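Submission sheet (multi-component)
Chains listed below:
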Amino acid sequence: MTNELSDATKTEDLLKINLITSTTEKEVQDDVVATETDEHLEYDPAVDKILDGFKCFKTNYFNTHPELFNELALGQNPKFLVFACSDSRVSPSHVLHFQPGDAFLVRNIANLVPKFDQIRYSGTGATLEYAVEELGVENILVMGHSGCGGIKRLMSYPEDGSAPLMFIDDWVEMGLPVKTKVIAEQGNTDFLEQCESCAKGCINMSLDNLLTYPFVQKAYSEKKLALTGGYYDFFNGRFELWEFGTNIIITTP
Amino acid sequence: MTSQLSDVTNYIQDLQKKLVSEKEDLEDVAATKLQNLAVEFNELNWAGPMVPTGPITLPFDPVKRLIDGFKHFKTSYFDTHPALFDELALGQSPKFMVFSCSDSRVCPSHVLHFQPGEVFMVRNIANMVPAFDQLKHSGVGATLEYAVKELGVANILVMGHSNCGGIKRLMSYPEDGSVAFDFIDEWVKMGLPAKTKVITEEAAGSADFHEKCERCARESVNLSLANLLTYPFVQKAHLEKQLALRGGYYDFVNGIFELWELQSHISNPITVQT
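Outcome: structure written.
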């Protein structure tokens, strides 16, 4: 009787962790080693995708650049800290051809840098603190992009009458001053154009916000740290770059 | 003989005189050595302007680096895959969401060979996923909300790695007696349960600090997987088998990748009727 009662209270069974280990030794070997489990794993192409991806990296890059990876195993010394959107289309490793060891990366919705706030934004603060104080990066790039969903949400809500989102609206609201400015100055233009202006405005806002972090302000004023804005337009395959505080924009053809 | 070479020759002769004046019995030895030196200088052909023999190192130009990087991408990838980029211009539908450390050595675009459009990425210190908190962690919440509810990703991977600075800090502070950071310690402290687990379980063992850090990095991934389930929309999609949750670990010292899965299962209830 007591066993039945204790079974009756057990209606959830969480956290079965099954281990698949991939170790690549040679190109042609079947090198996926599955440990013994008591659970039969269903075939999932996503697993193959991940493991094949690693094998490709291991054979075509890791194994062919032993000096680089021996050096990186000892430590990292990136020259860049890059803020980029989480969007799957804008990885700086692709877009700016960064190689392992080149860039310390932060990726979030709409590549936003919030103001110094140890309670609300410890995540961003931690990445800045580590990059600037520990690694001594010399260049911070805030890279925005075309067709950004986060910027679009900022520009759409609440005017579109939709229900609030649990997190997204709180996060993008730091861009409200930019939205206000865009609507005031470009209220008559096409909505998508307004979004693009807003995206660029938010990059400049983020660059401003960087200086609210004392260690960033210090390094910047001592000319040990450059702040740069960038914009990747994947509709037209173009990239713009500008130095914080200047009006000079470098555009790739 | 150019003035440079004659200067050097004079210098060698003066040196010889000085050395010999101090140690007369070394005169022959000194003479031979200094003569060899003069021959070497001659052979370096100091008759002309001094030309450095090694590669010239120019100062690093970050602007040029970024522009060149984009041009490389544009010509080698963007322009050669018009169908892909036309499709991506209309929208994204990645199957994966990946949490990876901000560390410059572990980008999933390299390590897992992800291509544009394949993975919605979040990168932060020590690839951590905090528990649901609309005040303290709106950033991570926003990425999860967008990926799961708006994009409908089918897979989340939390990928840890070897030699993680954030994990090392978690394991070191405050026991190392250092001063607190403004942000880092507050951020990594969400990993304290992983640290406690490692320290408790390794207390009787012989693992060194580095090994404990590597263990903590893996436990922290598991902790993040558990934290994912504190987001209602994640839990719902996961229990409905629309969303797989996996942990990964990239060891860049040895070139090894590990992958595992968090599987949740709600059994059928047992009914007690009396």
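Remark: Strands of chain A lie at 13-23, 32-34, 80-85, 103-108, 139-145, 226-233, 238-243, 249-251.
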